[in-house]
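User: Quick one: structure for sequence A, then sequence B.

Assistant: Sequence A:
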Amino acid sequence: MKPLLPLWAALLVAAAAGPILDMAYPSVGAWPVAFIGVTMSLLTLIGRSAWGSLAVGLVFGAFFYFVHIAWITRYLGVVPWFALGGLETLFMGLGAIPITLAYRWMPRALPARWAQLTLLPLLVAGLWTARELFMGSWPYTGFPWARLGMSQSESPLAHVVSWLGVAGLTFLMVALCAAAIEWGRNAQFKDLRTALPSGVLALLVLATPAWQTSTAGELRVGSAQGNGPSGYFDERAQNAVLQAQVDASVPLFGEDLDVLLWPEGGIDSDPLRNEATASVLDALAERVGAPLLVNAATTRGEDIFNTSMLWVGGEGAVQLHDKRNPVPMGEYVPDRPFFEALAPDLIGLIQREYTPGTNPPLIDLDGVGIGLAICFDVIYDGVIWEGARDGAQVYMFQTNNADFRDTDENLQQLAFARMRAIETGRSVVNISTVGTSQVIGPDGITLDTLPAGEAGQMLTDVELRTGLTPAVLLGPWVQVLIGWGSVAALVALGLTVRLRARKETPAPKGPASLNDALV
């Protein structure tokens, strides 16, 4: 098979595809261009050698990731940006090789046209999704940030995640792009049957309604965005962040509410050890007449945790949840001696070593299950699914985006929050220290919002829901089926091609005489 594009052209197309794909995500949010970016990327891989596919995959990955996560440089500089972007670029390049092999081996193993129009797009989509799942889980806890399905948080396709999860949506999007490519390559435009695979996939992602969960009442939630000096490098007086949160909560005094929600890092001292801070929280809870759902760094024994706590006036913290996935190189340093030798000044800035939490991502508020995800935990499927299975009727996401002020980071994270609402069929209250904060309905519609860079508060009657979506029930199995199933299918194709090549290769004839053998 000859490449569709010469290498020089493929490299240019891959370089353009990266920024185009990035435009599908916030802050631009032009979701249709995700299909253009994916299609361009796939076109560069067809007919390539392994080294050629690695080259174009690296270019596509670099021009996507270094644009997409440029927000890292806001306070942290270019070293973390280059390190993370470089690692993700490497994975994108290596993950391009199996996709190229699928394009090479499928026509040899199954030359029928129907296989090219149906099975090949599904295999390509599965391998793309497998790469995405791998990158989201390794090394350490992975970085499942730029998942393709997340680009559709405000598109008509978002409802698909309630059935198949984000991985399923990624799979269907790539399959649609790959099917359109194969329809074009077969050039049978007069035979409308050849358009059926593309048409069926398009109908599937557009016409499937969102799974409906059951209404179970309402919860009146007050939430406060203090806009305090909560960044890692912000200069601040003692308890300045706590005071900013208290000040932002004052307009809620006298209101009837069931809980007051604060963001991650809304308290800059440990209320489990600091009596003065605990007294402030007790007084606030008494003043608003409701429990507080707050967050702070806490120390228990020799371990430090990023902890959300339900605080009841006069009783203190009655329930705790610790962040499951502390951020490598942000909240802890894995293999510290190794990385400290490479970048001692940068690693030396990370003084705390947060311990991963083991308690459930759920609290019980007078019989109402509240699912939790602290900051980047929102990007991990397992945390969200566990909360729903354990009885969450609403989600409350606490985050601190102060280190990425005035960048796309908080809007990209908000897209995750929106998708989680649709995926689980639950309302989401997403509160940030510095914004953007929003209340999102189970259908993904924004109900209330606080802009970035301003102190403010929201008082929202939030709908409670029960019942589990197929994504929550079957999501892990969908990932296994797509990820490992596509890898197994590629291996089977490779073996089939190799066996067929052996059968088609004529056996060498033996020498007619000893003289012939010697010659």
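Sequence B:
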Amino acid sequence: MKPLKKISLLSCFLFALAVNGKAQTIYTNGKIITVDAANTIAEAVAVKDGKIIAVGTLKEVEKVKGADATIVDLKGKTLVPGFIDGHSHFMGLSRSALVNVGSPPMGEVKNIAELVARIQAFQREKKIPAGEWIDAYGYDQDQLEEKRHPRKEDLDAAFPNNPVTITNINGHMSVSNSYALKVSGITAKTENPAGGAIERQKGNNEPTGLLQEGATRLLKRPAKPAATFEEQLKDLKEKQLYYASNGITTAQDGYTSFESLSLLKKAADKKALFIDIEVLPGYPTLDKVIADPAYKFGVLENHLKLAGTKLVADGSPQGKTAFFSKSYLVEVPGCNHDECTGFPNINQQQFNDAIQKAFKNNIRPFVHCNGDATIDMYLKAIETANHDLNTNSNGRRPVTIHSQFVRADQLDSYKKLGIIAAMFSNHAYFWGDVHTRNLGPERANFLSPLKTAIKKGVVATNHTDYPVTPINQIFLLWTSVVRESRSGKTIGADERLTPLEGLRAITINGAYEYQEEQSKGSIEKGKLADFAILSGDLTTVDPSKIKDLVVLETIKEGKTIYKKQ
């Protein structure tokens, strides 16, 4: 018998590499939009162990084909990177726990009478007893036939024995009936809290029921019984599937409570998350999170990452609580003087302290700023932190969430300071007409100025702020391309993006927002195999038809997590 030849460790490694380096799945026969630096269109992409191992022509990709590789025939459909949610509230709504009183397309309510009837039907359906709080969500005063906020009197007759609160679609204000105000101790003598306002009846101090910004925290709801962990996991699964059905492979929870953070951490440890979730603990909970060794910022583990902290610095432009350097052009609830500019939720010193705390702890700030005056405050806070801490904000990538009415000169400061503009083009459709009326055409046309940001070299992402607007990423892309309002008017023609620019804003730029552009956001060798398969080619379809495209399948790290039935 001949002696066995010794096989070196190097030979074993090379042999294993040759076998294990072969693709398990190859996608081909469709249009593959990579959104790499050159916006390359590929014929095929090969995947192994959740990562992309080859992209290019079919001939090139077939070189890494494994013997048992699955060939996915795209049948002429379009493959794009999985969508990366620039900002939403993943944990924000349990869709079955609240009654939807939104107007089309968010709901079916057209007037206040229908709103009240919808809540009454919910009360009957859920058999809600006297004394129990009823919560509704989604009313939009500008879409109601009355063109006003509901008042407590609109609710009192229908709900004499229950506290009722309806939260605005913008999430920054709510209306409560007299019962809710009474049990919360909100009366004519109650002073406006810092960063909030109680709307009063004309001629006296009696509350109308409308509570804005920080005033909503005056409501004293009793604690609700906690759901079981199994029920919470089921809810998390439904939420992930909902996001995945819209092609999203990375989601954001844009203002995470400590309770939600704890639940997500438990779910991650249990391997119950299957899309990446970027959480932003709300600034009021930051000290508690920092003090807990279980939480580390900037580390993606088991599909969960603490990406930064969220600070809410002003309110809603359509709700007239966003803080501007120039006045609104229409009456502003709660403002009894000529210069009604909205208001910030914090003062400059508090802003400075918050940014410095974030920088000192190497935590990235994500700050909600809608009005240009609030953005001025944010810029000053960052500049102050850079000076006082002898640091540079560029590597930290601060984020301005919404940047809704950022000025052109402020975008120059974004570029200088390394700030990411997380914009919200859905406003052009949902409230473009409202902004034109409230702010005038000059400011309205420059809302979410994605094109100008790109021209100035600012990294800009796009988002839905779900549940404020639908999570549908294709609709979001459409609004960035056409910028068409509900009435059909173009809101800022110069700010319209090309379809590819719109796609980049919700893929590779989204990855940059989370400092993950090396591992996701484009279809390139070495990155995660996060894909969405679309029903058509968004780059060639008539721009007006982009919104009609649908997500057929969503793939996360090589595994299908959603497939349209």
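The chain has a mean pLDDT of 93. The longest strand covers residues 23-33.

User: Thanks, that's what I needed.
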